[in-house]
What we know:
The protein is 15% helix and 32% strand. The protein is an alpha+beta fold.
Amino acid sequence: MFRFNRVSVYMVLWTINNAHETHPYMASLHFFHTHLCGASIISNRWLVTAAHCTTLDLRYSNNAIRGFTIRVGTGLLETGGQEVSVLKLYDHPLFLNSFPVGFDYDISLLYLEKDLTLSTTVQPIRMLEIDENYPAATVVTVIGWGLQHEYGLFLAEILQEVAVPLVSNEDCLTLYNTVGFSSWVTDRMICAGHEEGEKDACAGDSGGPLITNNSLIGVVSWGYGCARAGFPGVYASVNYFREWIRNTTGI
Length: 251
């Protein structure tokens, strides 16, 4: 079972009062006012998410661009904060070259209809630069409102987070080779998860942030189930796409 719209069992639950203050860059990408994916604020006008969150919906609706909004400044899934319409979508141009056999280049940029009102609960996050890298075993944090179990039925009502260690791409390739998906893991991705599983991203978390030291290092992309032993979560690597982000947004 693959999760294409991917934080999972044993999550650390933040309270309503401080979730959006602790992670003021966190956003919910809505499609016709219903949560679709996570996203990260990178300026008062731009956000980053996963390409499979936006590209796949655009295939089925001529007016899909009119249905996308983002909600920020709240730790609640469907209420509070600011809701702003998305004016333009910039999926990475090479994403569809890999889909549906893999999720390479799984990154998208959202340009809003108007500026966000920045505050203590709405702030951009710093992005990792091209020459910045973190070694395997570095503890990172993934955030979202996704399912709390692989077979769960309902999204989390309150923003959640979980800490997981980075896994080298070499080890990630080896692990996914056991189910015939080693070719899906590319240099444009990073992997993170515990050997025993138990903590991970899951459906509904796609597009959300993977962070360390208050910097965005990854975008939730895909995985084999949720929190399964031996299968770390896979994320689009922000530092790999840093130049494309800068060229597209000027940031």
